[in-house]
């Protein structure tokens, strides 16, 4: 078996050896043991489930909340000749039905499922008939209410046991406190505790947390001084453009990135950065997952992250090549105050949550007793504006409604248009003869895509319009007409989150909301905010503050963070002041003013403080008005 995993690693990934911990985790899974893998960002988590899945017969089911990352991994697997598909919000019943059938009867090796899709009876029922060899739960901290990114949709995942009781679960996360580590294993019903953990220490990273009034100028100085490639994280989409423009205006090749951009535009920007055509990418936290760029020399945060876990993950994208790199957090008192206000706004009253549910049902014109399993495109900003609600409390209200099983909400992601023929080849040929106006488009689809009779394929209406020399609107009309005549099924693209009502609508006054859970969750979040404040306020060592938070024993200071470097500089100045005092006083006794004026380094206060210490230590003697060095 040991030989097999190395053969697979070399054959599909081209590596001769595993990274630290990877082989231990894989062997644990192959022995049928439930396993929790704690591996910092860039540690190669996906290899830990992809290799054992390839060694064994059957399919690996991967649960991931990050649709963009799912798509990325599927593309990588397919490029290696490995069959993989995904099921996420935005796909209709028929698409899901066909995908699940392919997992049961086809040659699919990896099925990626968004956690909210696990609410579906169809998905849970079909999984029972699959030959599953492993369940992989990515971003596993999301299952814990003590985790920094708790997602209610993860709570259903323990039911995977019911479908395949003997199949091991591999839970993966980049960051978790000791309490979260225990909670993950308990909630996933691990048969026995089994954790593989890599140290959270990153010795090559020099963490900096700098109080700064002019953050833009300080950022520019950092970018120019450190050099190389880097990421600047900001809080919203507007800031990405403003900061990128500022850097460009000051001669730094930069671009912006956020989830609201089209897929092709995001890919182009990402590729330009990874290939070093631009130096700096300014992004929201939508950027970075699954990107393994080793030579990132700096990661700058212009806003304070919501938790130390989130900061550690984002900062950890720097220096994956093991060379010196700098995560820099720039902040003002105003940022600290805003973080606390956002925390308070994230926990609305039960009455507010009930009212938001009432407005939501009205917004989609859902009758009382109706609406179960209806999925709709959801625009949070438009909804909040229509009903005069604040955005942050409204978003939080939806999360609590999701936790209590009333609805599920996916992340915003671009889902391309899809098409599938619903008749066989012979009948399609007859249709082409009878309806000549559809013939060019049908031929173009058949030439461009394989498998379009068996499953939905992503299509690009603009490409077909260009090929056929007709307007985009004409292509859309033809595709819609093919669907109307039941020749094919056409599903339009979307880039909005998908909201699904999981229960029939009830009167909002009878809507059950778990108020105790909200209070508990608020306590957890407050701890996380205070941990970030502690990281900013510590006087000792940034790296040790992170290690302590994640439950690791702390030893000596790192010597690389801003606090350690400041101490080194201070220690160096004090050493030089003492050396000059010794030389001057060995030559002859001096008055205080003569001595202070002749010391060439440090400010007067440092000189006076050190002189007092030397007198207290009996290294310097005061005789009347003059000081002299006391021989050792």
UniProtKB/TrEMBL annotation:
It comes from the Bacteria. Residues 26-194 form the Helicase ATP-binding domain. Residues 215-364 form the Helicase C-terminal domain. The keyword NAD does not apply. It catalyses: Couples ATP hydrolysis with the unwinding of duplex DNA by translocating in the 3'-5' direction. Keywords: ATP-binding, DNA-binding, Helicase, Hydrolase, Isomerase, Metal-binding, Nucleotide-binding. One of its GO terms (molecular function) is helicase activity. Its EC number is 5.6.2.4. Belongs to the helicase family. RecQ subfamily. This is ATP-dependent DNA helicase RecQ. The lineage of its organism: Bacteria, Pseudomonadati, Bacteroidota, Sphingobacteriia, Sphingobacteriales.
């Amino acid at each position: 078996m040991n030989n097999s995993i190395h053969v697979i690693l070399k054959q599909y990934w081209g590596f001769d050896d595993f990274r630290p911990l990877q082989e231990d985790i894989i062997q644990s899974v192959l022995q049928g043991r439930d396993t929790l893998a704690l591996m910092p960002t860039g540690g190669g988590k996906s290899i830990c489930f992809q290799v054992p899945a390839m060694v064994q017969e059957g399919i690996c089911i991967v649960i991931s909340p990050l649709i963009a990352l799912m798509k990325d991994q599927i593309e990588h697997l397919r490029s290696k000749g490995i069959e993989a598909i995904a099921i996420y919000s935005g796909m209709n019943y028929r698409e899901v039905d066909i995908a699940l059938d392919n997992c049961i009867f086809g040659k699919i090796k990896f099925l990626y499922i968004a956690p909210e899709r696990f609410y579906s009876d169809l998905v849970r029922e079909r999984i029972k008939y699959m030959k599953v060899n492993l369940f992989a739960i990515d971003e596993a901290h999301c299952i814990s209410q003590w985790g920094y990114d708790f997602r209610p949709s993860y709570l259903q995942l323990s039911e995977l046991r019911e479908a395949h009781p003997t199949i091991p679960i591999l839970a993966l996360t980049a960051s978790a406190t000791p309490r979260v580590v225990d909670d993950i294993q308990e909630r996933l019903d691990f048969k026995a505790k089994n954790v593989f953990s890599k140290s959270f220490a990153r010795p090559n990273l020099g963490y900096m947390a700098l109080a700064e009034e002019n953050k833009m100028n300080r950022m520019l100085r950092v970018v120019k001084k450190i050099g190389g490639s880097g990421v600047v994280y900001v809080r919203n989409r507007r800031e990405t453009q403003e900061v990128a423009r500022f850097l460009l205006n000051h001669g730094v090749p930069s671009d912006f990135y956020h989830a609201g951009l089209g897929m092709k535009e995001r890919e182009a920007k990402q590729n330009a950065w990874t290939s070093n055509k631009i130096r700096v990418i300014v992004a929201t936290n939508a950027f970075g997952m699954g990107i393994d760029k080793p030579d990132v020399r700096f990661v700058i945060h212009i806003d304070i992250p919501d938790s130390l876990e989130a900061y550690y993950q984002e900062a950890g994208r720097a220096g994956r090549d093991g060379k010196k790199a700098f995560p820099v957090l720039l902040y003002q008192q105003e940022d600290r105050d805003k973080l606390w206000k956002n925390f308070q706004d994230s926990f609305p009253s039960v009455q507010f949550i009930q009212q938001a549910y009432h407005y939501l049902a009205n917004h989609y014109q859902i009758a009382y007793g109706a609406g179960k399993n209806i999925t709709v495109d959801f625009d949070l900003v438009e909804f909040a504006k229509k009903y005069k609600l604040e955005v942050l409390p409204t978003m939080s209200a939806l999360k609590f409604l999701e936790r209590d099983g009333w609805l599920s909400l996916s992340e915003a992601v671009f889902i391309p248009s899809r098409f599938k023929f619903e008749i066989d080849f012979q009948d399609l040929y007859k249709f082409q003869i009878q309806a000549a106006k559809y013939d060019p488009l049908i031929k173009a689809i058949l030439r461009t895509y394989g498998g379009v009779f068996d499953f939905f394929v992503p299509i690009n209406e603009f490409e077909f319009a260009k090929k056929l020399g007709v307007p985009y609107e004409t292509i859309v009309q033809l595709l819609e007409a093919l669907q109307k005549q039941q020749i094919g099924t056409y599903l339009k693209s979307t880039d909005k989150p998908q909201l699904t009502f999981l229960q029939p609508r009830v009167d909002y006054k009878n809507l059950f909301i778990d108020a105790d859970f909200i209070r508990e969750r608020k306590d957890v979040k407050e701890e996380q905010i205070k941990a970030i404040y502690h990281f900013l306020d510590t006087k000792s060592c940034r790296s040790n503050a992170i290690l302590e938070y994640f439950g690791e024993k702390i030893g000596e200071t790192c010597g690389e963070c801003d606090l350690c470097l400041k101490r080194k500089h201070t220690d160096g100045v004090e050493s030089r002041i003492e050396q000059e005092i010794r030389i001057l006083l060995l030559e002859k006794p001096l008055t205080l003013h003569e001595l202070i004026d002749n010391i060439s380094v440090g400010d007067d206060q440092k000189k006076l403080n050190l002189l007092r210490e030397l007198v207290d230590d009996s290294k310097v003697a005061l005789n009347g008005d003059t000081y002299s060095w006391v021989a050792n």
